[in-house]
Hints:
alpha/beta; Rossmann fold; 7-stranded parallel sheet
Amino acid sequence: MMDRVFFILYAIVMTIAYIILLPFLYFFSKRNVKYKVSIPARFFLKDNEPFKPNGIWFHVCSFGEARAIYPLLDALPKEELRLSTTTQTGYEAISLKGGKEQSRYLPFEPLLFSWIRPQKMLLVMEAEFWYLLFALAKGRGAKTLLINARMSDRSFPKYKRMAWLYRQIFRHIDEVYAQSSIDKERLEILGAKNIKVIGNIKLANIPKATKKLTKPKTLLVCGASTHEGEEALIIEAFLKLKEETPTARLILAPRHPERFEKVSKMVESCARENHYSWHNYSQSEALNSDIVVADVLGELVNIYAIADVVILGGAFVPIGGHNAAEAAQFGCKIISGEHYFNQRDIFSMVEGIAIVTKENLSRRLQQHAQLIKTKIVQRTDIEPILDSIKREL
């Protein structure tokens, strides 16, 4: 009875919130290029038809999460796949596997009542805790899984304060596949059941290089997956490195495509002031300038393959860090900031990462010869997830 009451109240509250937000969302979608497709699809169902029924439905958020499920998708019949996401970059990644006909933006929760069709399974990545997504999918016959589940040191206290909500969500999740024992303990406190620890599936099939780039015959530094405030920090460290190693070169790869132009302008200004050469990678893959802006998606792993030192972004500002294993597979020397709380499990599986404060980045980069090459020391096992899926096929 209480479950039914909660379901009704939650649906009413989210519907009211949806109605209130509609004018703002419409205005925002017209003003912000980044959301011109995702907002109409998610909140107005523009060009966003329901999936065909009776498939295996995966839901992810980011580009990285989408890439992480590729090994699972490759092991399943393509006609069974149903893929959804909430972000533009995530949509680009799932479209590579599911095509336009099997890839969707996930509608906002009140719209799921009319949108969800019965599926064999629903598998949701990491921390996409949408109550109505799980409740409606399970209510219409799907076996529900939370995969690669994690609960970071930073986020757990916030989730714990809302434990009453997450206990309701976990009532509708049949199986949970956690990254670590710590994650399992924290998820159990929030009400999760049937939890297996299998490691981080982002290590199950790390993206491989798709082409061989020509490495400059000098020190090559890559500032990878950077966020606002990190590019300036890395450029400053690189300028000091150039005082000692004049031939060193830097590749700067912003995390989000909408920041490519801004970072290019920043680099152009720096290069002009310091009499350095620079260019955008989209114009030339030749790494013959002092600074190259990697203004493309999907090329970072190719750059890792020839980089000497990787300064991994997302951790010099409180973003949570990014997947260090992609660079570690090539033995790159890796420098990270302190804020890697979302990547704690992967960092524990990679040996040799140098963790520094942003104030010490310049000095650590100058001491690059003392850094050790990184090595992945632990893998993961996706077979339990595949076994669960195959039981429903």
